[in-house]
Design brief:
Distance between the termini: 29 Å
Number of strands: 2
Structural class: mainly alpha
Radius of gyration: 13 Å
Oligomer: single chain
Strand content: 5-15%
Order of helices and strands: EEHH
Helix content: 40-55%
Largest sheet: 2 strands, antiparallel
């Protein structure tokens, strides 16, 4: 599996991508998927999104203030 997203701004660590950028980049890779050459990136991004979604759900479930939305 890979830990790097190769976007128009150059290679970036998936773990460092802001949530909205991560989700949009993931959707774009899926939407314009031509072959399986970027499947590792897609899988790594999906995994990171799932982790962030689970963390957010845990934060809001225990009555904590939710993290600030990034616009």
């Amino acid at each position: 599996m890979t830990d790097t997203y190769h976007g128009s701004k150059g290679p970036m660590l998936i773990a460092d991508l802001p949530y909205p950028y991560l989700v949009n980049a993931h959707k774009k890779l899926i939407r314009y998927r031509v072959d399986d050459s970027r499947d590792a990136e897609i899988a790594a991004m999906a995994e990171r999104i799932a982790v962030l979604d689970a963390e957010y759900a845990a934060e809001t479930a225990v009555g904590q203030e939710p993290r600030a939305e990034v616009v």
